[in-house]
Amino acid sequence: MIEGDATRAVVVLSGGQDSTTCLYWAIDRYGSDKVETLTFDYGQRHRIELECAARVAGFAGVPNTILPIDTFAALGGDALTDTDVPVQAGIDDATGLPNTFVPGRNLVFLTFAAAFAYRRGATNLVTGVAQTDYSGYPDCREGTITSLQHTLRLGMEFDVTIHTPLMHLSKKETVELARDLGALPAMAHTHTCYNGKRPPCGTCPACELRAKGFAEAGVEDPLLATQ
Ligand SMILES: [Zn+2]
Predict the structure, then answer these.
(1) pTM score, whole prediction
(2) pLDDT of 175
(3) CA–CA separation, 209 vs 166, rounded Å?
(4) Inter-residue contact 67 to 38 (CB < 8 Å)
(5) Coil, strand or helix: which one is 17?
(6) Cα(155)–Cα(2) distance, rounded to whole angstroms?
(7) Coil, strand or helix: which one is 2?
(8) Contacting residues for 218 by C-beta, under 8 A, at least 6 apart
(9) CA of 199 to the centre of ligand 1 (A)
(10) 71 C-alpha vs ligand 1 centroid, how far in Å?
(11) 35-41/64-68 β-pairing
(12) 196 CA from centroid of ligand 1 (Å)
């Protein structure tokens, strides 16, 4: 068992609101000189996500590494990587999930993130998944993450801990946490819209969920304030 450095953390940064909040959670906990970010280029149709992740990391003063994983785009069939599949609101009858669900995505991301953390000797992994007030992706649930952490510890003989600061928070509470951590200025550089629009389209499920969270928290979204 490799013990690694428990004072260092790797944050999985998508360039969105939740992972940006997690980045500030990690900086608050470990200090910016002990935190770095990892972004996956999985063939997402909206390349702006990669730019936003780099901008958020730069704004926060921490390193950002982009890892390419083009296999999901080759698999196709989901609205986030397959340009033939339009983003739909609501639930797909066949799967009981939104058609933005990319099967296995978080499992693969966190496995590669753990391998990255292993190389860096950092035992803390931070991810913005949440099982509340969310799209119901099964790989975002606590049971999945706990199980995966166990598997990674066994399979890598590495004492990795997967932190999920947003797991039980509503969108409103996530906005409040971002505010309390001083993460709001960085939100101007984030990207949420499933349609890849900037300024955001305001009508897709991701835009609606984001707007609902800020409205309920009584906080103005810095992304909209900059437009
Ligand atoms: Zn949108």
Answers:
(1) 0.90
(2) 97
(3) 15
(4) yes
(5) helix
(6) 12
(7) strand
(8) none
(9) 9
(10) 25
(11) parallel
(12) 7
Query: What's the gap in Å between 30 CA and the centre of ligand 1?
Result: 33
B/e letters for 191-216, b = 16+ CB within 10 Å, e = fewer, are bbbbbbbeebeeebbbbebbbebbee
Per-residue tokens: 135: 């799209």
Q: Can you tell me the mean pLDDT for 110-133? A: 93
Residues paired with residue 67 on neighbouring β-strands, in sequence order: 40
Q: Give the chain's mean pLDDT.
A: 89
Give the model confidence (pLDDT) of 137-156 as tens digits: 888 889 999 999 999 999 99
CA of 178 to the centre of ligand 1 (A): 21
Q: Which of 63, 73, 72, 71 is nearest to 116 (CA)?
A: 63
Q: What is the pLDDT of residue 225?
A: 82
Structure tokens belonging to residue 30: 């470990």
Centre of ligand 1 from the C-alpha of residue 179, in Å: 22
The pLDDT value recorded for residue 6 is 94
Per residue in 57-104, pLDDT (tens digit) is: 999 999 999 999 888 778 776 666 666 766 666 677 766 676 667 788
85 close to 56: Cβ distance less than 8 angstroms: no
Span from the CA of 149 to the centroid of ligand 1 (angstroms): 32
The 10 Å CB-count burial string (b at 16+, else e) for 149-163 is beebbeebebebebb
Ligand 1: centre distance to CA 48 (Å): 13
**63 Cα to the center of ligand 1, angstroms:** 28
- Using an 8 Å Cβ cutoff, are 120 and 112 in contact? no
